[in-house]
User: What shape does this take?
Amino acid sequence: MNYFPDEVLEHIFDFVTSQRDRNSVSQVCKPWYKIESSSRQKVFVGNCYAISPERVIERFPGLKSITLKGKPHFADFNLVPPDWGGFVYPWIEAFARNNLGLEELKLKRMIISDECLELISRSFANFKSLVLVSCEGFSTDGLAAIASNCSFLRELDLQENDVEDHRGHWLSCFPDTCTSLVSLNFACLKGDVNLAALERLVARSPNLRSLRLNHAVPLDILQKILMRAPHLVDLGVGSYVHDPDSETYNKLVTALQKCKSVRSLSGFLEAAPQCLSAFHLICPNLTSLNLSYAPGIHGTELRKLIRHCRKLQRLWILDCIGDEGLEVVASTCKDLQEIRVFPSDPFVGNAAVTEVGLVALSSGCPKLHSILYFCQQMTNAALITVAKNRPNFTRFRLCILDPTKPDAVTNQPLDEGFGAIVHSCKGLRRLSMSGRLTDKVFLYIGMYAEQLEMISIAFAGDTDKGMQYLLNGCKKLRKLEIRDCPFGNAALLMDVGKYETMRSLWMSSCNVTLGGCKSLAKKMPMLNVEIINETDQMDISADDRQKAEKMFLYRTLAGRRKDAPEFVWTL
Amino acid sequence: MEFDRDLNLEATELRLGLPGTVTEQSEKQKPNSNATKSNKRSLPDMNGESEVRRENSSASSNDKKSHGQETAPPIKTQVVGWPPIRSYRKNSLQAKKLEAEAAGLFVKVSMDGAPYLRKIDLKVYKGYPELLEVLEEMFKFKVGEYSEREGYNGSEHVPTYEDKDGDWMLVGDVPWEMFINSCKRLRIMKESEARGLGCAV
Assistant: This one.
């Protein structure tokens, strides 16, 4: 390889696309490091505080596409106060200042302001793709800036963001010359949109393949849009409370018949049965279906729909489908790879699915490898059966709505069940557990879960040993998040070097003390050990024996962050 | 019917369990009661809060006869961040719930032999007795005595409803809250047709 000119090496490296592989390539030798770094276009930063934007720009001057993640995962569940951090502005400002030719930006759990969106739209002439997942801090005014100024915009994808909606004028901001849209997703916007502008936009976007509308787009407009965009591959519809009149229904059916390419369907905040039945037409070709925002769809309607979906690979659904419905899924969807069953009534806690549905899926779907399952109850016997049926799980997340519920039949902890899962599923990379669990389950995980990268634990374990088994055993662990478990300083400080091999550790409502955290921070200067202090009584010089209610630590090359709010202490 | 329990007759209530047996409810409220000595952190006090919530909701519904509260699993105290679903999803489900609650729950009521159907708002009634009274008035019939074993005995008409799964069920078997959430429409059947429904399986 020493005899190859740089351009040849660069060309070869072009075929290496995954970040992990490119990281490996760059570690072979100095010349390879140089060439790889200067030619890398796509960069992934799993923790925006792990490195400074300047350093990223310095190493990857050819950067065109960046993914940034901000807040810790548990921020999704209201465990992190707002304003904790995750601001993207410094990154954009640095990119703009250094004249980077940024084309793609993907953010997850970050705060992005309208000013920042405006800066993006003005600074990067070739900007093509904006994907925001679970972000906040912006309004439709920011979207208007993107629409107005990004002449070559291909993708605007807003997933589950909290957007301040100033009504629909942003859609009209796409100039008539903008014909490059491939993907538009505004399903999370709560307000009305300018329907005429939407129709015109679709009409002049011949490359549009993915369109996800919000609830404000009525059925008759949907039908018109579908007629103009028959090549859609991914469709997200709105909310249809009432059954349509027969004229609209017939037009809808005609439009859907033309949509032979639709492979992915979502939306349906509400769907009256007759309206839903029109969509049966596109079910036979669907590979992805997301009905998880539709609590109003009855079990019978769901089952009818699913029976038409023989090619489904990915299904996101609510538990009102019931165990019976999951049995229909198991017998119909033989290509199913991923399923998520969400609770339809999280406030009351009456899930309609049990271990029966899970076992049915594991036995009926041979390709199933990723599951998120919210249920009423579980048993060890069921988990053992699932483990036997489905050793190919890579992601296994089980959430029993009563978090410390034992085996529903034997009243035993669920240690044996989860133990069977980690023992059998040798490729398991992500695990979430719930139910009554003792230290034993962690012993099993430490022993068997060799590929485990991310694990979420809540209300589990008895002593420090639990966490110690975990840290000792899981060599590939990257993200560990723990809440409400009796793990204390002994576990935290057992192997401090381990945390440098991981992206982050979250511990809340455990037994670690301020003193323990301080001690850790002192030993490990390459970690940021942050305490989130939400009560007034505690202060930094307080008694070290006080419990640290929320601790988040992560490895970093950037030192302590300068944007931490008052209630976050970096030790 | 089940609404009697809310009148706090527990102390003198006859049950099948041995004296001192933990009821299903207290078991649910004390998930750690089985744990032997352990360093385990206990869940936030679920007893106190769920009691308070039940009292509050009873007060607001103005009627101790809302038997849905007592026999349905107790309303869980909200442990922060549990169940672990994204706020976006939680908010959207809650919005749907509130929407549904505000909208009222109008269902069609038909009676065999009547020339046209009626519609009633189930949200307006607090329990089965009230509902049956209104139906009796509306359609001019009398419904018999309800018993779990035999359904409505001694009447020409039987109140039934279609549930979410499309099955026809006898009115009165399930707690009120569960009933109004699953009832799609009502039908007053003639005794002769309803013979199958009232019998215990």
Notes: Chain B is about 35% helix and 15% strand. The interface with chain A takes residues 28, 31-32, 34, 38-41, 43, 72-73, 75-76, 78-90, 92-94, 96-97, 100, 164-166 of chain B (CB under 8 Å). Residues 87-103 of chain B form the longest helix (17 residues).
